[in-house]
């Protein structure tokens, strides 16, 4: 029997991935598929951090297998933060020898910030954004911005991507690794971090639909450069009313986030964190000098993080965070990935990519149809 483990994103709940499950069931109705839609880290519990949530996933899987021991294959589907949580869980399972008994089939991430959500501090607004992440998202905010010191003074996302540790070794065992990334309008996770890429070519070139059956699945067309899109009436209306709405909602939102942040910080002081189980192997992969010295041309403005060409970065950011992000991308790309590029014309493609709200996002369900019919392995 094939167990599919799913995990939602930050502030999320299992309902956010119900559409994914429905498409897999419809497409593979004759297959022996079992679903474990993780609910042990719903809502504000995601504040506890990638590692704590990942350990909960491991416990949930073990408990599931107590009740249904016939499982002999396993796949993971993570949405947003959930992809990172599942990568942590995979490392813990690997350290336990789990995959010698249960065959790892597929790891799929949907709009997951594999490289974090850090913005370079070249503008006041981006410095404020980075600071707010760490303040309001507590542990997971530090992990997103590479400010934590998880192991040997290294950030967790760096450790997750390193060939020296269980997390990489476990991920390497899977028959297939797939990442779906939004090319535009993702207000939470930009293309470069979702697709583990240095640049977003879709900022410069037009997208080309690969198959008319799946109009949201695209590839870059380097023969057609993008032309500036003139502002519409709705754009002008938004420009006028958004500042007014922000003035109203910002104090309310700040108050709510502050409450959750204070609760999470108190809870964090009670957490007993253990990482002494993590083994270190003698494997290492070094970046070539060409990659290490090249300008990283990631210029995201549709939300998520920005990484601008190094010549325009502050010295500290260039030396530390930018090089660390390049290292994470380089190491993860030593594994073979199927990278699925998604173009959704919606205000918030981050929600639409998994059809989080069928009544609103249902018109973009071709992404999940593609996942179920063309990508998923039984």
Descriptive overview:
The chain is of the alpha/beta class and 378 residues long. Helix content is 42%, strand content 14%. It has helices spanning 18-27, 50-67, 81-95, 124-136, 138-144, 156-161, 166-172, 191-194, 233-270, 289-293, 315-332, 349-352, 358-361, 366-375, and strands spanning 2-7, 33-37, 73-79, 103-110, 176-182, 205-209, 217-225, 338-342. It has an eight-stranded mixed β-sheet, with helices on both faces. β1 (2-7), α1 (18-27) and β2 (33-37) form a beta-alpha-beta unit. α2 (50-67) packs across α3 and α3 (81-95) packs across α7. The longest helix has 38 residues, at 233-270. It is globular and about 60 Å long. Residues 294-317 have low confidence and may be disordered.
- Main sheet record: 8 strands, mixed
Structural Rg = 20 Å
Strand composition percent? 5-15%
H/E element string?
Answer: EHEHEHEHHHHEHEEHHHEHHH
Class derived from helix and strand content: alpha/beta
> Which blocks of ≥5 consecutive residues have pLDDT under 50?
294-317
- The termini sit apart by 10 Å
Rounded average pLDDT:
84
Helix share bin = 40-55%
User: Order of strands across the biggest sheet?
Assistant: 2-1-3-4-5-8-7-6
